[in-house]
Design brief:
It contains 16 helices and 38 strands. It is of the alpha+beta class and 666 residues long. Residues 1-451 form the Biotin carboxylation domain.
Length: 666
């Protein structure tokens, strides 16, 4: 192995490049049209253009990836995670082309890639599994019969699924048919296979996974567990190791089962066996036949480079350690920063400002007490609708769990991401929640506490942005728009569709004074800093603001651990010109493709009634009416690509507003 082609993009491609270069390997990056200027393209020794924008036209094209290997002289392929990383046919095609495959054998991928097949193999090895049905009869009637036998609640899963796609929780029989149809649609779009299974659902378990590693000499070990219970849309956002609920005895039991399953499948390389943990009982979920997004947590805890291990095993080398030689130190937690708002709706656009916390390491173990930030971000990076919304991963490694939490809270406060929404503040709220701090967070954590967390964030945002808004608008107008007048001037600011009126004047250079929306006098000191931030001072306290200007006299503001959008509404009439129309139209909340339209012109709508389904960043999102209305006009059709703010349908006037309510289903 001399030259490695990385069949992936973004932060995982950069991660693989680092370890490959450390081993003296040459690297080849591949890229789609939107990724032509991406960081992984610049850092590899060579780069090959796949063409196309969508995954289906680039990173999922086996023929183009093999052509890239031939054209660049690569003799090995690393798939990263996602895309074709768990595609047995791609692995076989790589081997048939005479290249080394950095991953498990195709037969092992086939045996474990299907949840149904993996479950059958696990049961033969004595691995605990939940009762369920995974037969060839895929008729809704058969699933209904089997669900009655298993007992509700049940979980519908895509047989070939992963990453939370194609999963639906069903609590009563009336919900089953719709869940089957939705899960099948998402599975077909995401994996090309619509086969489903159902199994008994545990409503409040933990999600605990075991990292396994095997070589070609028949050795197989585990590298401990990761707790991934904090999730939204069945997708992980916080992972940690060790699990607060796993002791040495339970770790050995789970590890023995994970290793037994890997051995039975003839596994080679890195893999992850995922379990649901209910008290001291655990049940197999699936086995992921690839490197995991959260592998840095294990690297921090063990001091090992898992990508280096993958490359060495692919070269035929034995595992560097035996099971008894594996050591764990401290506690590690990873956060997934995503381009999404507090309702988990994905967003696309340009990152207008990016700054990472000081002292962060990249793609390598940061050491005990250190901070690692794996990302592919820079100011100006475009977040595309064609890929998932992951921006990067922050990993803290501390001597204790409490130390890791505090380190991450500081790091989040110091991470600046402006230009599009992110879950930065929501992650901090999760970390700081008493239930998470106590190590008691289970899979329903976000579902149970999300509304309260969002309410707290909104209150903090309103309080923090109140003094920042007048300062930003005043500075943006100066000097041309300011007149030499000692009188205060009216200023109207919009935040989350609420407009507040201020009265503002200059009380000397760098000092604003006036009256707030409640009529109370205020005085605010302003000092622009050399790094572009604005230092505010009031009543003896100081804080800094980072802001970027957006179109239409708008600003994205970040301060005091919160993010918000402000707009200068001073030049608008007292009644917004668009308010009447806004109540009669439904606009797209993000980029996506219309999968289904469930209503027709003239149809009367009830509150909560589904209107249409939009697919964005690999997930289906149901948009529903929030109040009674009537459909006046449909402006989109299935298969159509839509952009944020695009009008999807018009509602009859004189009805209560039917603003979009988004229910993300995965």
């Amino acid at each position: 192995m001399k030259r490695l082609l990385i069949a992936n993009r973004g932060e995982i491609a950069r991660r693989i490049i680092r370890s490959a270069h450390a081993l003296g390997l040459e690297t080849v990056a591949v890229f789609s049209e939107p990724d032509a200027q991406a960081l992984h393209v610049r850092e590899a020794g060579q780069a090959f253009a796949l063409g196309g924008s969508r995954s289906a036209d680039s990173y999922l094209r086996v023929d183009r990836l093999l052509a890239a290997a031939r054209a660049t002289g690569a003799d090995a392929v690393h798939p990263g995670y996602g895309f074709l990383s768990e595609n047995a046919d791609f692995a076989q095609a790589v081997l048939d082309a005479g290249l080394a495959w950095v991953g498990p054998p195709p037969d092992a991928i086939r045996a474990l890639g299907s949840k149904a097949a993996a479950k059958a193999l696990a049961q033969s090895q004595g691995v605990p599994c939940l009762p369920g049905y995974a037969g060839e009869d895929q008729r809704p009637e058969r699933f209904a019969t089997e669900a009655e036998r298993i007992g509700y609640p049940v979980m519908v899963k895509a047989v070939a699924g992963g990453g939370g796609r194609g999963m639906r929780l069903v609590t009563q029989p009336a919900e089953l048919a719709a869940a089957l149809a939705s899960a099948r649609s998402e599975a077909l779009a995401g994996f090309g296979c619509g086969d489903l299974l159902i199994e008994r659902a545990l409503l409040a378990p933990r999600h605990v996974e075991l990292q396994v590693f095997a070589d070609t000499q028949g050795h197989c070990i585990h590298l401990g567990e990761r707790d991934c219970s904090v999730q939204r849309r069945h997708q992980k956002i916080i992972e940690e190791a060790p699990s607060p609920a796993v002791d040495a005895a339970l770790r050995q039991r789970m590890g023995d089962c994970a290793v037994a399953l890997a051995r039975a499948a003839g596994y080679v390389g890195a893999g992850t066996v995922e379990f649901l943990l209910d008290g001291s009982d655990f049940y197999l979920m699936e086995m992921n036949t690839r490197l995991q997004v959260e592998h840095p947590v294990t690297e921090a805890l063990t001091g090992l480079d898992l990508v280096e291990w993958q490359l060495r095993v692919a070269r035929g080398e034995p595992l560097p350690l035996r099971q008894e030689q594996v050591r764990f130190e401290g506690h590690a937690i990873e956060l997934r920063l995503c381009a999404e708002d507090e309702h988990f709706r994905p967003h696309t656009g340009r990152l207008l400002h990016f700054s990472e916390p000081p002292g962060a390491r990249h793609f390598e173990r940061a050491g005990l007490g250190g901070l690692r930030f794996d990302h592919a971000l820079a100011t100006g990076t475009e977040v595309s609708p064609h890929y998932d919304p992951l921006l990067g991963k922050l990993i803290a490694h501390g001597p204790t769990r409490e130390a890791a939490i505090e380190h991450l809270l500081r790091a989040l406060a110091q991470t600046e991401l402006l230009g599009l929404p992110s879950n930065r503040a929501f992650l901090a709220a999760c970390l700081d929640h008493p239930e998470f701090r106590a190590g008691q967070a289970l899979i329903p954590f976000v579902q149970q506490h999300g509304p309260a967390l969002r309410a707290g964030l909104l209150a903090a945002e309103q309080q923090a942005l109140a003094p920042a808004g007048p300062a930003l608008v005043w500075l943006a107008r100066a000097p041309a728009a300011q007149l030499a007048c000692p009188l205060e001037r009216p200023l109207r600011l919009r935040h989350r569709d609420q407009v507040q009126s201020w009265s503002v004047g200059e009380a000397g250079q760098g000092v604003l004074q006036g009256r707030d929306p409640q009529g109370q006098p205020f005085q605010l000191g302003l000092q622009p800093l050399a790094d572009g931030r604005l230092l505010l001072s009031q009543d003896g306290r100081q804080w800094s603001v980072r802001a970027v200007a957006l179109a239409g006299r708008r600003w994205h503001v970040q301060l005091a651990g919160v993010d918000g959008w402000l707009e200068d509404a001073s030049f608008e009439p007292l009644r917004r010109a668009g308010e009447g129309e806004a109540a009669r139209v439904l606009r797209a909340p993000f980029n996506g493709r219309v999968l289904r339209v469930d209503v027709a012109p003239g149809q009367a709508l009830l509150a909560g009634q589904p209107l249409l389904v939009i697919e964005s960043m690999k997930l289906e999102h149901v948009i529903a009416a929030s109040a009674p209305a009537q459909v006046a006009e449909l402006l989109v059709a299935p298969g159509q690509q839509v952009a944020p703010g695009q009008v999807l349908l018009r509602l009859a006037p004189a009805q209560p507003a039917a603003a979009p309510v988004l229910e993300s289903v995965a």
